[in-house]
Input
Amino acid sequence: MPDFLWWRDGVIYQIYPRSFADSNGNGLGDLPGITAHLDYLSDLGIDAIWLSPFYPTPDADFGYDISDHTDVDLRFGTMGDFDNLLAEAHKRNIRVVLDLVLNHTSDQHPWFLESRASRKNPKSDWYIWQDHIPNNWQSVFGGRAWTYAPEREQYFYHMFLTEQPDLNWHNPEVRQAQLDVIRFWLERGVDGFRLDVFNLYFKDAMLRNNPKKLGLRPFDQQRHIYDADRPEMIALLNELRSMMDSYTERYAVGETFIASPEKAAWYSGPGKLHAAFNFDFTFRRYNPSQFLESIQRWDQFASGEIWPNYVLSNHDIVRAASRYAKGEDDGRAKVVLAMLLTLRGTPFLYYGEEIGMRDISLKRSEILDPPGQRYWPLYKGRDACRSPMQWDDSPFAGFSTVKPWLPVHPNYATRNVAAQLEQPDSILHFTRRLISLRKEYPALQHGAITAMTPKPRKVLAYLRKTHEQTIAVVLNFSGSKESLDSAIQNSSWNLLLSSSTTVGNARSPLEPHEARILVEET
Ligand code: GLC
Output
């Protein structure tokens, strides 16, 4: 193992391409827009970007319904633009991770058009077809997971929208075609993949009914034992991993859909994926013992050769700053960012998280996301966390010269990259310093983690330790001044970073919602 491994020790930054930067004035972000901001990302200090889908798509699920896995949607650029982005990223030592949606395709994908056309065609068995609805399986986005196709007088299965039919991974030709997609991008030079809902690829061969349980939506009223996490997955992961390992330092992280941290750990490690997402943080309240419990649970499963990862925000959930911060104050957002970036595990940052972007609020008529349209007001969908990146205070936040596909947050005039670069105590500068500390101190990368207080009420404090270095991370989750843990009071520490501007030295009492990082004197 090298001393520094980008996907283990570095920081991965998720870009939702259509909302990052619009270079051609069509209201949608694009690949050249990303390339134009690589210097910004390099200054931020991140090690890799994960790009949400930019492939040709009819946009039923905003790019997660793909009609060609090996091309670029013209609205986002060309293959030439992609190659240029990749080369420019690599010049800056930024790795590129692609989002591959291999569980399903768009219903406009030529494979599905062919499969749907008749019962007798070379691709007739590439999707999951049945004469009658065989079971109680539900779609995540609402309604039954089976839709009738008159052309074949049969039903096809879709875990998500009707426009996203699931592929039949039991068919060896499908399996080969999907591995070819992976190979295509590896050969092109990409560094890794985020595998969309990978734990759904295989469904029970007998299509048995899922048992019932309590839950809100029909989908949640079932235990997903037959439509997810099937045993066939392991042999496939094995094959995929050996393919990845035949290239240098490539990486695959899986989106473990509806899965526990235990399950995520189970999918990770040698012969499996490099990592699988643990989303536990996204369910936690702003409370130190809640987060500590989550960290310890994960650290217990992710030991030895399984490397943990942490996520606070992504394109499917409310942004962390909207969940935890009060109004426009960034105190709480800085506390959770400091936590994310100092834990033992790969941190995933979501675009705009570094400037504390908040979710937008939308009227019902403005909702674009299909589950939001269906379940409003019970569930308002995922548009709110996908608003345009706020670069400056010009009209449309410097994202575009025309009205963007989703509204810009009204706070953009003050909350934007340009303004925060001018403010030494901004959340942007704080994030940059956190990332550079992580780079500078190996203890923050792979050092062991130990909690300093078992059941913290207000202050979460932990040590990150290698043989040579000890770092203390002290996070005050309360709105009051708090004293430092006696363990810290009794040794000699140097102050590395504080989110408060008024802290005198390493030992002064903690300010409300202060994040402080110390290094032990040697
Ligand atoms: C994943 C994606 C989500 C998408 C779904 C279906 O959960 O993160 O955005 O809607 O898969 O592809």
Remarks:
- The mean pLDDT is 96.
- The domain at 110-157 is CATH 3.90.400.10 (Oligo-1,6-glucosidase; domain 2).
- The radius of gyration is 23 Å.
